[in-house]
């Protein structure tokens, strides 16, 4: 456990979540295309739920590529949520906190994800996934969404990561492998609950190769992934795959739940970066000028304490843990070539 603590301590800076395989093939027809997207999870899916005062995602240079200014996304531009919405041919759902400001946009679904959260309470005092699902249930009870709306919807679930930091901070006597199983069990409970609200299809992202994040590749001058960390990720993903497979076996259509294989899609881009016009695969584009600062930091005189690479479009990672828009676009394209996304459609 002592050896694992440095590995898991990387989660202290993660505002992310989350290998799996396609589970069941589902053929779509034009009449079956979903019209709404509901999103639950953390910063790999959050599009602006955290208040401006509490996150660097609302500070320059975040959002520089899209929409041209900080907008609450943990990237220079679009994130996973935006690309899944693009595939579904719906507008990216509005953040939950903006539902009353932009009421006409609720017809496309809603994003309940908050950066830094997990399936359990984490170090970030923000709504965990249970509470996020409560938000959707509350909206259904108040008839913001009807049964028909839910039938024509897809849920995207970005899970894990931040739960492990909380686990290490509590010095729990429970073993790591046992805790991973606990996280997966709660994830399974969450998926069942979302399905019970009437959502037709639930897509959950597997953990990406955390050992390849800049925070972990920095000791090798951003040259090599940490295989020990990635081995832990594979345990999480194997248990998630088992859980999702069982859920599908227990449903009538056997295609309600789907895993997005983010691990393999990330690794494919890393192994063939030039195919995706990526020249810098592990080096972050935006970093603090020293270890005391991070992307978006300024001093008391509002002087920038970060530096940005010349071409974010050629970098896979934006900061120490989050992909650039170019990185997410490469992952999205890989998921499409793997025929993974077609199974989101009914």
Molecular structure report:
- This protein is of the alpha/beta class and 346 residues long.
- It has one domain: Rossmann fold (3-Layer(aba) Sandwich), CATH 3.40.50.
- The chain contains ten helices and eight strands.
- The strands form two sheets. It has a six-stranded parallel sheet, with helices on both faces. A two-stranded antiparallel sheet has the order 7-8.
- Helix 9 (262-271) packs across helix 10 (325-337).
- It is globular, with a radius of gyration of 19 Å.
- The relative contact order is 0.18.
Output the strand order for the largest sheet: 2-3-1-4-5-6
Helix-residue proportion: 25-40%
Class computed from helices, strands and strand pairing: alpha/beta
Low-pLDDT runs = 1-31
Question: CATH fold name, please?
Answer: Rossmann fold
How many domains make up the coordinates?
1
Features:
Rossmann fold, two-stranded antiparallel sheet, six-stranded parallel beta sheet, about 350 residues, alpha/beta
Give a short overview:
The protein has ten helices and eight strands. The chain is an alpha/beta fold and 346 residues long. Helix 9 packs across helix 10 (325-337).
Which secondary structure elements does this structure contain, and how are they paired or packed?
Blueprint: H1 4-8, E1 36-40, H2 80-88, E2 94-95, E3 109-111, H3 129-141, H4 147-151, E4 153-158, H5 162-169, H6 176-196, E5 201-205, H7 214-217, H8 227-249, E6 257-260, H9 262-271, E7 286-288, E8 306-308, H10 325-337
Parallel strand pairs: 1-3, 1-4, 2-3, 4-5, 5-6
Antiparallel strand pairs: 7-8
